[in-house]
Amino acid sequence: MKPDESLPRSAFLLAFDLRKGKLSNRGELGYLLRAAALAELVMGGNVADESGRVRPVAAPADPGPLQAAVWEQITNSPARSWRHWIRKDRSRAFRLVRDELEAARLIRVERRRLVLFPVERITPRRPYLSRRLAERVGRAIRGGRPVDRLGQDVRVLAALATAARLKGVVPRREWREHRGRAAVLAEPVEPVATALRKNVEAAASAAAAGG
User: Fold this and answer.
1) What angle separates helix 127-142 from helix 7-14, to the nearest 10 degrees?
2) For residue 105, pLDDT beyond 90
3) Which residue from 194, 208, 167 is spatially nearest to 86, judged by alpha carbons?
4) What interhelical angle do 152-163 and 7-14 show, nearest 10?
5) Which of 14, 104, 123, 178 matches a 20 to 30 Å C-alpha distance to 167?
């Protein structure tokens, strides 16, 4: 990732299934984007864990749209759990990052109406960016090099992608065998990665029960 690319932007680009030309994990993407924004706040020293709740520490200097929205919510609310902040306003998180990437001309958004309902098709303008991200994150998860030699951005993105079971990064059949590696990758943002995994698992269980 380039230094000026935020974790939420990179997570969105990583979610593209280039073979199908569309986003994968659409239902979980809002969770992942919120978690990415929280991870940035953790790494920047802006928030910290306090008995399982998110405690604001210092305002971020130059936050992206989603990071700014999450920070504002945290500072204007009672102390809440990490899972709460990852669940909250996921649709808005999707829209904020989508609009940011569209303005940067990194994605194309085609909008139309199907009968009474608006629909949109989102495709990457520079598929090679998603491909490179997937390759780097996949290597980080599989253990291509020691964790302490990975850039922190790739390390954290790999941890979050694992927690969200993001398709296209590592085949589904391989996720279980990389759990130990994922735990090490997640250490800098452990409360975020754990909360993301639990939210995704809970959503999957609810969907299965409803089906």
Assistant:
1) 100
2) yes
3) 194
4) 50
5) 104
2 in any annotated domain: no
Domain with 31, as residue range(s), is 7-210
Q: What is the pLDDT of residue 3?
A: 40
For residue 20, the tally of other CB atoms under 10 A from its CB is 10
Q: How far is CA 138 from the centre of its chain?
A: 15
pLDDT at 78 over 50: yes
- Where helices occur in the chain by DSSP H, the ranges are 7-14, 26-43, 65-75, 82-87, 90-103, 127-142, 152-163, 179-185, 190-210
Residue 64 has pLDDT above 60, yes or no: yes
Number of domains in the chain: 1
Residue 148, burial from CB neighbour count under 10 angstroms (0-12, 13-18, 19+): exposed
pLDDT of residue 40: 96
Is 45 within a domain?
yes
Of 33, 16, 49, 25, which Cα lies nearest the Cα of 204? 25
Query: Residue 120 is encoded by which pair of tokens?
Result: 């949109």
Which DSSP state fits 192?
A: H
Residue 185 lies in a domain: yes
> Locate tokens 């992942």: which residue?
32
* pLDDT for res 111: 83
Kindly report the pTM of this predicted structure.
0.92
Mean pLDDT along residues 108-127? 85
Q: Would you say residue 1 lies in a domain?
A: no
Helix (H, G, I), strand (E, B) or coil at 129: helix
14 contacts: CB under 8 Å, gap ≥ 6: 130, 133, 134, 137, 157, 161, 166, 168, 169
